[in-house]
DNA sequence: TTGTAAGCGTTATCAC
DNA sequence: GTGATAACGCTTACAA
């Protein structure tokens, strides 16, 4: 079956209409070799007239390049892959490249399958989107083309892993809170086995220490990435330490939970307690009450950077190691506006 | 550059290793023609040994089919495209087909560009994901392969549009509320220019009428799809109609806003006022307090169905018109559990 | 049963 | 400057 052969316009048709050979037509269209100006004109016009679209398959067969990259993720349904994907897709589109998308859904079998598929499809490179959790096994040996790991780190230091600078993001938060004259700062975050959670704790503690401070309660409250945990931990923390004047939350959901409980407990935000989230999940952070100061991971940027490095690798200039890209503090009312 | 030619395993390599011609090797691998059992064995083993992956480009060049479909969306960042995409990707993966993803971001220029790109890449078909707003112009004439429109309807009745049954979803909600002995039901929803918003109103009113009821206040409160609007409208509605005993909200965000205000006003949910959302946006609906009864659009299913129809069209059996797929009510505590 | 050869649509290498 | 011709990797008549 497939498409009707007849209705597919080929270079031969264009050449015929222009009265030249396919070779000349090809050169004219690709600005290769020397073609007489008027010949080129005729060819271009013929191509235009027939709405000629060069067959990418045939091209790829010769060049060995498909101008396609494979994007492999494990959690498209989550909210981190998408911005990365968008950033990458945008950067690729500018270079006339396309994205083959595969979501392995955390299943190793599925992942293997997709890798084989993508390799068979001759993708020029891979972008592997991980999660903010631990390092993940390198796919290195299985893949004959350049790979860039984004958001989740590869175990192999010879791979390139591109991460958000979680430690730096946490530093921004604490510096901001201290600048707002907060001194008794608590930290409620997700599971301790998340690399991102630990990194943020490290960053936060560093800045606190530089200012002669410690976390309220001494330790962060590790739990889960949910509103429910945010509510629970906030209640607990404020009961034990009623003089807490700021909460740094590990993500926006936790922060929203915190806001709810603070309101219940009669604490004003930001007057009594400042609250900071993480992720800048707009639909939550900007629409809650009060709007949430939070950290933006610059994920779109991360995706775009991944593409840049992938191109470099395709050009024979691979980068290796772990690169951390700065985050950005988004200040909203929950920490008191500058005004 | 492109990949090193040398390290790409080709059918020729396999044939050589097996000591047969490429033709025989091809037949053996594709179970075509008559090949001696032991010959086939040798070929299969050689292929295995070399980890041979047939070059999809070469295959596609011959067959005219690429086993690739283009998925065109306008709002990947929103939360509707993703589940549809996942459903489609899953269904396609089962048939060894892949997805080329393009997000036009609502930009017509970009959309045209992507369409050209995808056509040049010889995709076998398109899935166009729209939004729940108005009908959108058919892309019909520009595309030489089958197209299925999902979530957003095409202007052309000769196209196939696959939608969630918004009217039916609203019916489920109202029937449920009435079964819970609610009689004074208000409706707060998004902008009136959204087709989905209007359809839901229609469905809700139909069931109310069947039960001799009307919406509290007579009219739905059209606004925006935000918590903020949910808060504002709830305050307004309950002030004007203090005896309201149920709120049907146009989406989960509005419902969350409603929950907040109800708490502030000292109304218990669900005891005094039952609240229902729409979309079953898990991370919001399941994690708020109390968890939200809401309507699930079955979007993954929608994506999978789209693929089915696309396959049918590829096999020469296209469907046309508008198909509406049922929604599903997810009952949680905000309307009182069955218990 | 197996191998030879043509051809898918394009680009690259040569002669002319 | 232009046009045969040979690839690219694979499938498929058709011949052996």
Please tell me about this protein's structure.
Chains A, B: Keywords: DNA-binding, Transcription, Transcription regulation. Chains A, B: GO terms for molecular function: DNA binding. Chains A, B: This is LacI family DNA-binding transcriptional regulator. Chains A, B: Residues 9-63 form the HTH lacI-type domain. The structure is a homodimer of 339-residue chains. The first copy, chain A, is 42% helix and 15% strand. Chain A is α/β, with parallel strands linked by helices. The first copy, chain A, has a 6-stranded parallel beta sheet with strand order 2-1-3-4-5-11, with helices on both faces. Mean pLDDT of chain A is 92; it is low at 1-6. Strand 2 of chain A pairs antiparallel with strand 2 (98-103) of chain B.
Quickly describe the structure.
Chain A has 339 residues and is an alpha/beta fold. Helices cover 42% and strands 15% of the residues of chain A.
Task: Sketch the major β-sheet of chain A.
Answer: 6 strands, parallel
Number of DSSP strand runs of chain A: 12
Q: What would you call the structural class of chain A?
A: alpha/beta
Secondary-structure element pattern of chain A, one letter each: HHHHEHEHEEEHEHEHEHEHEHEE
Organism (chains A, B): Hamadaea flava
InterPro entries (chains A, B): HTH_LacI (IPR000843), LacI/GalR-like_sensor (IPR046335), Lambda_DNA-bd_dom_sf (IPR010982), Peripla_BP_I (IPR028082)
Domain HTH lacI-type (chains A, B): 9-63
Protein name (chains A, B): LacI family DNA-binding transcriptional regulator
Keywords:
disordered N terminus, 42% helix, 339 residues, DNA-binding, 15% strand, homodimer, alpha/beta, HTH_LacI (chains A, B)
